[in-house]
Design brief:
Number of domains: 1
Order of helices and strands: EHEHEEEHEHE
Distance between the termini: 35 Å
Shape: globular
Largest sheet: 5 strands, mixed
CATH superfamily: Gcn5-related N-acetyltransferase (GNAT)
CATH class: Alpha Beta
CATH topology: Aminopeptidase
CATH architecture: 3-Layer(aba) Sandwich
Helix content: 25-40%
Strand order of the largest sheet: 1-3-4-5-6
Number of helices: 4
């Protein structure tokens, strides 16, 4: 079953995001941001639930952009549990996200994906996405510990 996430889903979504990022995030900070997003119409966290267990999430942000002169949707986080990969859940979640964005009036859906996630790149290309951009980032804190981030296995 696909549905919009709720407050009660926070701990499971936190675990999935930590698995996606391969690090422990500050649960307190995560919860604060998650709760804010739930109340903000600019966000939509879609989850896939199977047997009362969340097996996937796709978090969208909607944003008007000057260079498009329109609203676009951006996939911020997208993960399907390892034990469910290959079952078509991700494909259906992506399709559902596109429908949600279209219904809202968005003209485009975008995603930034880590360069190391080659299988994710192939997934997005199979779904009709194109790699037109480079995304650059720069850390603005002197150490990841200041932000409550513990990197696992790096």
């Amino acid at each position: 079953m696909y549905r919009k996430s709720e407050v009660k889903d926070c701990k499971t979504i936190y675990s999935l995001i930590c698995a996606l990022e391969n690090r422990h995030l500050s649960y307190e900070q995560f919860t604060e941001i998650y709760r804010k997003q739930l109340l903000d119409e600019q966000y939509y966290c879609l989850i896939y639930e199977q047997n009362d267990s969340i097996q996937g999430l796709l978090n969208l942000r909607f944003e008007e952009q000057l260079h498009h002169a329109a609203e676009i949707a951006e996939i911020l986080e997208f993960i399907v549990s390892e034990n469910c990969r290959g079952d078509g859940i991700g494909k259906r979640m992506f399709q559902r996200a596109c429908e949600i964005a279209e219904k809202r009036g968005c003209i485009q859906i975008e995603v930034a994906c880590n360069q190391l996630r080659k299988s994710s790149h192939l997934f997005y290309m199979r779904e009709g996405m194109h790699n037109f951009h480079f995304k650059f980032s720069k850390s603005l804190c002197s150490g990841s510990e200041e932000k409550g981030i513990n990197v696992l296995g790096r």
